[in-house]
Amino acid sequence: MCTNTKEKKIYELLKLYWGYDDFRPVQKDIILSVIEKKDTLGLLPTGGGKSLCFQIPALYFSNICLVVSPLVALMKDQVENLEKRGINAIYLHSGMSYAEKSNIYRKITSHHFKFIYVSPEKLQTQEFREILNNISIDLIAVDEAHCISQWGHDFRPSYLNIGEIRNLFPEAPVIALTATATHEVVKDIVSLMRLNNPAVFSKSFERKNLSYVVRKAENKQEYLLYLLSKVSGSTVIYVRNRKKTKQWAEFLQKKGLTSEFYHAGLSTIERNIKQERWIKGQSRIMVATNAFGMGIDKPDVRLVVHLDLPETLEAYYQEAGRAGRDEQKAFAVALVNDEDILMLKQNFEKSFPSIEEIKHIYDMIGSYLQIPVGSGNGNSYLFDLDTFANRYKIPVSKVYASIKFLERNNYLYLNDYFEEPTKVRFIVSPKEVYQIAVKIRTLEPILMFLTRNYPGIFTDLTPINELYIAQKIKTTHIHIKQLLQKLKNSNIIEYFPNSTLPKIVYVTDRIEKKFLYISPETYLERKKIALQKLNKVIEYISYNGCRTKFLLKYFGEENYNRCGVCDNCLISKKNFSLTEHKISRFIQEKIPCDMEELWQQLLKKYKKEDIEITLQNLLDEKLIVIENNQIKRAP
Question: What confidence score (pLDDT) does residue 88 get?
Answer without folding.
Answer: 93
